[in-house]
Amino acid sequence: MHALRVGTEKAVGLLAAPKWDAELLGELTRVMTDSSICGLGQAAIESGEEVLKHFAKDVS
Amino acid sequence: MSDGSGVAPKGVKFLLDGVEVEALRARRSGARRGATRPTFRISASRRHPAIAPTAIGRACMVEIEGERVLAASCIRQPSPGMKVQTQSERAVANRKLVFELLSPISRRARKRMIPIPNSGRTRRASASRQAAFAARYQPAPDRSPSGDGGQSRCLHSMQSLRPRLPRSAGQ
Asked: Which fold has domain B11-138?
């Protein structure tokens, strides 16, 4: 499995929802950060994490 | 074991879940294989088309003290004094989610999937979590010629590139 390839597809699905599932997104962030082979995979989901951190009221 | 010169080859001693184990230098053994007793079994999962033994399966991730990210134990060579944790909360959670992510892989690849013995609990996500994923995510149709979501091409790519790639700290 490519954590990047599968994880980003999952992330897109989760981020497209009007209300984000913060718990699931957090777990996905951790597995992508820890398991991705490349730097892109490790950083790809950081933007979503930052949005949750700073604009949590707007997405959940 | 002897290498023919009459001198027993020295192994690499490292800590695996707090137990000192020794891996033979002669073997291309990963950090997990140095154990005298297995701490977790994933060998059967290698049959899954998406978890080929090329270090991209990410189903054997272990935590190594002092490293930022987890390491794939199938290819990671042990070094003297290395402290490997296979059952840490972080490593266990990671492996569990890796298997969970594998679940909705293409239908054709799923048909070829061989059941993983004694691992139903880790591979099968709970119904509520699967529903949460399914409600938000519809996988794109698999248009790859091989019908495995392009895994074989990815594997080929990784195998051809890996010898040229510099070894990073996380590999």
From this structure: Ubiquitin-like (UB roll) (3.10.20)
